[in-house]
Amino acid sequence: QVQLVESGGGLVQAGGSLRLSCAASGRTFSSYAMAWFRQALGKEREFVAAISWKGFRTSYADSVKDRFTISRDNTKNTVYLQMNSLKPEDTAVYYCATESVGYGLGSSREYEYTYWGQGTQVTVSS
Question: In this structure, are residues 37 and 57 in contact, taking their beta carbons and an 8 Å threshold?
């Protein structure tokens, strides 16, 4: 049974920072690309960032590029999302996900991810 557990969300003022963590269990974490998605109230879930299975390749949505950094520690089975210069429009529930097929580069397409965490709320006040 694959489990993904996010943590690190909370309330922060605009311009502040948060670091999200996603701890994985139940499969060989290091063999799979990982990603973060988010869903704001009343909106569809959207891609935020992805990282390849070995961590050499990362990709970002334009809206978070140069502010967010995705990373992974395969020794801890954990993926991180460092979020800096946060804006009110970053307010959302953030989900981590693991790709269906191993050894991937990290897709931005939601349908390529099989397992999802329960989400962690990030609220940015103005």
Answer: no
**Strand ranges (E), the chain:** 3-7, 10-13, 18-25, 34-39, 46-51, 58-60, 68-73, 78-83, 92-99, 113-116, 120-125
At 23, which amino acid appears? A
Spatial separation of the C-alpha atoms in residues 55 and 74, rounded to whole Å: 9
Residue 83 token pair: 């979020």
Q: What is the pLDDT of residues 86-121, one digit of tens each?
A: 999 999 999 999 998 889 899 999 999 999 999 999
**Helix, strand or coil, per DSSP, at residue 29:** helix
Q: At residue 37, what is the residue type?
A: F
Other CB atoms within 10 A of residue 17 CB? 11
- Phi first, then psi, for residue 86 (nearest 5°) are -65, 145
